[in-house]
C-alpha cells in the first residue's frame, strides 16, 4: 500500500472500530502505518478487515495486526492454488478414462476450492498458463525408478502400465463389490 491507500485502509478500520484514533494532519502516522503495510496489496484491505473483525478484538488495531493477517491469508490462498494446480493436473491426466465418479468428485472439489478464492485471485489463477501434466510426469518418474532408470512404455501411456490393468480388471469383476460385504 502507498500512503494514500494506507490512509483509506485506516479510515475503513475506523469505520468498523470506534477505538481507532484518526491520523494526524502532518501525515506522520500514515507514513508509519504505510512502512508496516507497504507489502500488503490494497485490493486485499476488505478481506483483511473482514478476517480481523470476524472475532471480537480486545486490542485496538495496529498495522502489524493487518500485516500478520495478510500473511496468513496469503499462505492460505497459496495452499488453495497449489491444491487447484494438483487437481487440474490430475484431471487433465485422467481425462477420457472411465472413472467418471472419481473425476466428478475431483471436479466438484476443484470448483469448491476455486469458489473459496476472492474474485481477483480467482481471475489471476485462471489466467495463468499451465504445464501439460505434472501428474503424468510423476507416474513416469515412478516407472523409471522401478525399472532402474529405463524408459517404460507406460511413461507415455499410463494405460499400458500393468498395475493399471490389474486395477481395471478388479473394477470390472462383477464380484468386486461383494468383497467388502
TrEMBL record:
Top-rank lineage group of the source organism: Bacteria
Protein name: Uncharacterized protein
Amino acid at each position: 500500500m502507498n500512503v494514500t491507500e494506507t490512509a483509506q485502509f485506516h479510515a475503513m478500520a475506523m469505520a468498523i472500530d470506534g477505538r481507532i484514533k484518526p491520523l494526524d494532519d502532518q501525515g506522520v502516522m500514515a507514513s508509519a502505518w504505510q512502512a508496516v503495510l507497504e507489502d500488503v496489496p490494497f485490493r486485499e484491505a476488505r478481506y483483511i478487515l473482514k478476517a480481523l473483525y470476524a472475532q471480537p478484538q480486545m486490542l485496538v488495531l495496529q498495522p502489524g495486526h493487518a500485516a500478520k493477517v495478510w500473511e496468513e491469508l496469503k499462505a492460505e490462498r497459496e495452499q488453495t492454488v497449489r491444491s487447484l494446480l494438483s487437481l487440474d493436473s490430475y484431471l487433465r491426466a485422467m481425462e477420457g478414462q472411465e472413472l467418471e465418479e472419481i473425476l466428478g468428485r475431483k471436479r466438484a472439489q476443484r470448483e469448491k476450492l476455486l469458489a473459496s478464492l476472492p474474485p481477483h485471485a480467482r481471475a489471476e489463477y485462471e489466467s495463468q498458463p499451465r504445464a501439460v501434466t505434472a501428474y503424468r510426469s510423476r507416474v513416469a518418474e515412478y516407472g523409471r525408478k522401478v525399472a532402474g532408470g529405463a524408459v517404460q512404455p507406460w511413461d507415455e501411456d499410463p494405460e499400458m502400465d500393468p498395475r493399471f490393468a490389474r486395477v481395471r480388471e478388479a473394477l470390472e469383476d462383477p464380484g468386486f463389490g461383494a468383497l467388502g460385504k
